[in-house]
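Lab notebook, bench 4. Still working through the backlog of constructs that have no structural model yet. Next entry is a single chain of 205 residues. Request: give me the C-alpha cells for it.
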Amino acid sequence: MPLQRDLVAVRIYPGQVDAVAKDFFISYTAADKAWATWIAYILEADGFAVTIQEWDFRPGSNFAVGMDKALKQCPRMIAVRSPAYLKAPFPTSEWTAVFASDPEGAKNALVPIMVQECQPQGLLSQVVQIRIHGLDEAAARKQILEGVRRERNKPTTPPPFPGTSAVPTAAPAPAVPYPPATGASAAATTSRLRWQSPAPPVSVS
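Model written out:
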C-alpha cells in the first residue's frame, strides 16, 4: 500500500503550479475532528492520499491560501456530515465549491459521510452519502472503503434468496408390516376362524 500512496503523490495536474495531486480533501468542522482524522487515517492506510487541516495546515501558513490549494489538489472531497457541519459557515463554502464543479455527480467529487444523524436540506440532500452513524469500527471502516471507490460495488458472493424457501416434501413413510397377534389377541383371533372343506371339482363337457 505505501507504494500505491507514493505513486498517487507524484501526479501533477496540468496547468497548476505546485499542485501535487491528492485523492481527497477532508472537509469537517471542529466538533467532528476526531471523526475526520480517523477517516483520513484509514483512507491513507488503504493507499489513498488525503489533505486534512489537522495534519497539513501547519502553524504560520495562510488558512485561505491552504484551502484554495487543497481544493485544487484534490479532485474529490469527503464531507464529514453532522448537525454541527450543517450549521457551520466554512464547510458550506467548501462543499458548494466542489458541488459546482460536478453538479451531476459524474465524477463522484463530493462524498458525504454521515457520522451523526442529521437531515441536510437543499442541494446537499440530493448527494448519495455513506452512513456510518451507529456502526461499530469494523463495519464503519468497510462502509467507507467500499463507498469511496468509484467502480461498481458488486459483491463477490451471491446474495441470499429474498423469497420464501421451498419446503422439502417429506418422503412417504415405509410401510410397516402388520405385526402378528400374540397372547390373548391371538387366541381370540383363532377362535373366530372356521375351516371349510373345498367344494368338489365341477365337470365341464
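Notes after review: The beta strands are 24-27, 50-52, 76-81, 110-114, 130-131. The longest helix spans residues 33-45. Flag for follow-up if needed.
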